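step 3/5: co-fold with manganese (II) ion
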Amino acid sequence: MDNTRSHDIAWLPGDGIGPEVTREALRVLDAVASAHGFSVTATEHRIGGAALDETGRPFPTSTREACLESDAVLLGAVGGPKWNDNTGEQRPEHGLLTLRKALGVYANLRPVRVPEARAGASPLRPDRVGGTDILFVRELTGGIYFGTPEGRTDDGARSTMVYSEAEIERIAHVAFQRAQRRDGHVTSVDKANVLEVSELWREVVPRIREEHYPDLELRHLYVDNAAMQVVRDPRQFDVVLTGNLFGDILSDLAAALPGSLGLLPSASVGGAVGLFEPVHGSAPDIAGQDVANPTAAILSAALLLDAVGETAAADAIRHGVDAALDAGFRTADLAASDEETVSTSTLGREVATHAADPAPKNAPTP
Ligand code: IPM
Ligand code: MN
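step 4/5: write C-alpha cells
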C-alpha cells in the first residue's frame, strides 16, 4: 500500500457550532486516513466573526493565502448575533463570499438524500419523501450575490442580478456532467417569466444540452413552482440546476426533507482549490453545548476526500454515518421526543469507529 499520500487541509472552523462540528469531521478524517493509508494535515485559520474579532477583517490575507496553498478547505460556518449590527464588508458572511470568490469555486453541489429507512424523521409524509435523491447544482460566484451596481441610492438601495453567458455555460456543464453519472435528468430553475437574466439562462442551458448532452433530459421550472414541487413530490427531481440566490433558498427548503439541516453537506468546486462545508449555519443558540449534529460536516469531509481522489475512504465515511444513524445514535435535531439523544462528540466518535472498519459493506454514494 502507498503510505506516502498526504493531503493538506485548511481548516476554517468559523463561528457558532462551526468549530465543534468540524472537529468531529477531522476526527473521522483521521480515522479513515490511517485505515486507508494516507495522512491528513489540518491547519487552523480564522474566518468570519472569529477573524473579525482577531484581525478586524472577516477574511484575513493569511487565511486567503493558506487556503490557496492547501489541497482543500474544510469550513464550519460563519456569523452570529455578536456581529449582527455589522454592515457590508464588516459582516462575517462577507468573509465567506470573498473566500468562495478567491478560490473561484463557481459550482456548489448540495446532495439531499432521504433513505427509506430514515424517512420517518422527515416532517413530511414518509411515503412521499422516502427514496428522495436530489443533487442541487447552485451557481456560487455570480448572480445577485456579486452583481454591480450594489449599494445605497439617494432614496433606497439596490442589488443587481447579473449573469454572463460564460458563467451560465460553465455551471450548466457541471449539472449535465453530474446528471450523466446519475439518472440523466436536469431541472433548470429560473424566473424567466419576470427576469431578463433568467431569459438568457433559459436560452443558454438548452443550447448546452443540444450541443454536448443530447441524450440527457432537460426541463425548466419557475422558482416559485419549483419550491412547491420540492415539497409536494421531491422524488421527481434528479439534478436541479439553478443560480446563486434561488439555489440558496431551494437548498435550505430541501434540507427539511430528511428532517434536519444538520445532515446536509456541500462541495464547492470548479476553482483552484475545493471548499467543503455544511449547508447549515452557525446555530449560535446551541453553540458550545456539544449538542449540534456533526453529520453535515462529516459528510462534507467525505466530499472533500472524493475531490482529492480518496474515494474509497469517502465511501467509508458515508458508510460510517449510515451505520451510526441506523444504530440509533441521534443528536437532538433528529431524535423523536421519546428517543434518547447523543452529543456531537459521541456521534462523531461512533461514525469514526464505523468508518474505520476496513470492510464497509454496501457503502452508498450521494
Ligand atoms: C449558504 C449560506 C451563505 C449563502 C451565507 C452565510 C452567506 O446561507 O452557504 O447557503 O447565502 O451562500
Ligand atoms: Mn444558505
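step 5/5: annotate
The domain at 1-108+260-366 is CATH 3.40.718.10 (Isopropylmalate Dehydrogenase).
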